[in-house]
Automatic annotation (TrEMBL):
Keywords: DNA recombination, DNA-binding
Domain of life where this protein originates: Bacteria
Lineage: Bacteria, Pseudomonadati, Bacteroidota, Flavobacteriia, Flavobacteriales
Protein's name in the database: Site-specific recombinase XerD
Ranges for domain Tyr recombinase: 209-395
Amino acid sequence: MSSVQVVLRKKPNKQNKYPIAIRITKNRKASYLFIGQYIDEKYWDEKNKRVKKSHPNSIMLNSLILNKLSEANNSMIAIEIQNGHSTASNIKQDIIGTDKLDFFEVAKLHLENLKNADKLRQYQTQKGRVSKFMSFVGKEKLYFEEITVFLLKNFESFILHQELRRPRTAANYMILIRKIFNLAISESIVERKHYPFGKSKIQIRIPESEKIGLSKEEVKILENAKGLTDAQQAALNVWLISFYFAGIRVSDVLLLKWSDFKDGRLLYRMNKNQKLVSLKIPLKAQVILDSYKHDSKSDLVFPYLYGTDLSDKRELLVRTRTVTRTLNRRLQLVALTVGIDKRLSMHIARHTFGNISGDKIPIQMLQKLYRHSSITTTVAYQASFMKKDADEALDKVVNF
C-alpha cells in the first residue's frame, strides 16, 4: 500500500526556514520529494497540512502544494498500475526522472565550458554565484522542476536584503540561473513549461548604473599633483595611461609591452575580446612612457606583473586582481591628497574619458575608441555622459 502526503521537513536551511515536501510512503518506508519552497515553522498548519493564512503568500503556496500533491498522486497511480512492486524510493525516482541532470550538474557543465574557453574571470565569478545559490537552497541536488517563481523571488530578496547587495548584482544572479535553465531546455533536460522566466513570471530588469567620471579640471589636478609618494605616483601614472588611451582596461594596461609601440602608435590585442587596437600615442602619454624606459627590465612597460607566468591564465588573473586592488587603494590616497572627493579607481579612468568626451565625439567614433562590438553597447555606456541635448531642452522650457 502506498500513499502521498504533504509535510514540513524538520531540517532547516541556513536561513532557518523549513522545506515543504511531498512524502511518498510504501510498505512503511518513506521518500521525500521537495517542492522548492521554504517557510518559517510558525506558518505551518500541521493539522491541515497547509500554510497558514498569516503567511503573506499563503494562497500561492497552498495552490502550489495542491498542484504538486496532485501530480505526485497521478504519477504514483500510473506507476503502481505498471509496477506494483515499486518501493517509495523508486516511485519518487520515477516521478522526477533519475536519468535527468539537475540544475547544479548542468551549472557544472556550463562552468567547465567557461574554464575550457579560458574565460577564467567569468568562470570564477559565476562559480561563486552558483555556490551562493546552492547554499541558499540548502542542498546539493536541485531539479529544474523545483526552481519556481516563488523560490527565485525569495533568493532575489535574500541577495538584496540579507546579503545587502546592489540590484545589479541580484540581476546578475538571475541572468546566470536563466542561462543555465535555457541550456537545460536546449538539451531537453527540462520542458519549457517549467521555465520560471518571462512575462507574468520572473522578469529580469537591469537597473541603470550611475557612471561617474572626473571632469577636465580634476584630470588637470591629477596631472599636476605634488606631494605624492613614489608608490602613489606610480599608480597615478597607470591611471593616466589608461585615460590617455581612451579608458584602456587595467588588465590591458598592466600587460602593455614596449613591442606594442611602433611608429608613434599603440598596437595591441585586447585581453577581453581579443580585438586588435591601433591608437596614436598622445604626447602626454609619451612623457610617462619615456620615464619608464630606462628602468625597464623586461618587455613589460609597468613592473607590476614582473615574475608572473603570463602564459598561466589563472596565475595572471589572480595577480592582476591583486595589483588592481593595490592600485585602487593608492589612487584613493592620491584623491585625498589633491582634494578630489570622487572615488578614484582604475575603472574611473574609462568613465572619465566618457565624461569629458560627452557629446563632442560621434557615437561611431566612440564605439571604435571603446572597442565595443556593438554600437548599442556604446550608446548605453555613453548615455550617462551625454547631457547637452537634455540640458538644452530643459533650458528652453524653464528659462522664460
